[in-house]
Task: structure prediction
Amino acid sequence: MRRKDMRRKIPSTTALVSFEAAARHESFTKAAHELSLT
Result:
C-alpha cells in the first residue's frame, strides 16, 4: 500500500473526539449532547 493511500484511512480529529465521547458515555445521544451536536 502506498503512503498516500494510508493517509486517507486515518480518521479526522473530530471523528476521534466524537468516538471517544461516545465510548466514554456509552451513548451516542449523550456524546452528541456533550459535543453540542444534534
In short: The chain has one domain: 3-34. The mean pLDDT is 88.
